[in-house]
Amino acid sequence: MKKLILVFLMAVGLGACTEQEPDLYTGKQLEFGLFKSSDFEYNGTLTVNELRDGKLEFDIQLEGANSSTEYNFPAHLHFGGYDQADAPIAYLLNPVSSKDLESSTVLGELSDGSKLTFEQMKTFDGHVKIHLANEGPDYEVILVAGNVGGNFNPELGFDPSKIAVCGKGF
């Protein structure tokens, strides 16, 4: 019995000495809709969280049919609106997994050399597109798209007929 009490006290003592892992996030968050853009039944959300170090984390969650086979859908942050032809890629986001329909990316330096802060993201002139494939004819199939930052306006709605073909350039 004494050993049991001693083990319990040691466990409590060790537990009290462990530090809490600091929260990675500041609590600032933005959400943007990603809308069905082809015959494939997907839509989703881009959530932008500010990290304590000032960087931005882009979390994509799609809704639609997932797969038991691993396949990745390429995801890009572009400059300009989704209706802008040949909009340059601002950042290659981590691909969306076909298994869980999720992606998470900590944003680094954009293709123009700039870095986005949380406040700048609110007015950023950009959009996100998720493609069916990384190359070939399926690259031109956009599963979901949506304006972000200052371009996001839910009152205007989303018109998939206005989606411009992606520029592959940076």
Quick overview of this protein structure:
The chain has helices spanning 2-17, 118-123; strands at 25-36, 43-51, 56-63, 72-79, 89-97, 102-106, 125-131, 142-149.
Could you explain the architecture of this structure?
The structure is a single chain. An eight-stranded antiparallel β-sheet has the order 5-4-7-8-1-2-3-6. It has a single domain (23-162), classed as Immunoglobulin-like, CATH 2.60.40. The protein has 170 residues and is mainly beta. It is built from two helices and eight strands, in the order αββββββαββ. The chain starts with a helix and ends in a 21-residue tail after the last strand.
How do the strands of the widest beta sheet line up side by side? 5-4-7-8-1-2-3-6
The biggest beta sheet reads: 8 strands, antiparallel
What is the name of the CATH class? Mainly Beta
Average per-residue pLDDT, rounded, comes to 88
- Strand content range: 35-45%
Q: What is the number of helical segments per DSSP (H or I, 4+ residues)?
A: 2
Count of β-strands = 8
Low confidence ranges: 4-12
Order of helices and strands: HEEEEEEHEE
How helical, in percent, are the residues? 10-25%
User: What structural class should be given to the helix and strand makeup?
Assistant: mainly beta
Structural domains: how many: 1
Give the overall form. Answer: globular
Indicate the CATH topology. Answer: Immunoglobulin-like
CATH A-level architecture? Sandwich
Radius of gyration of CA atoms, rounded to a whole number? 21 Å
- Spatial separation of the terminal alpha carbons: 69 Å
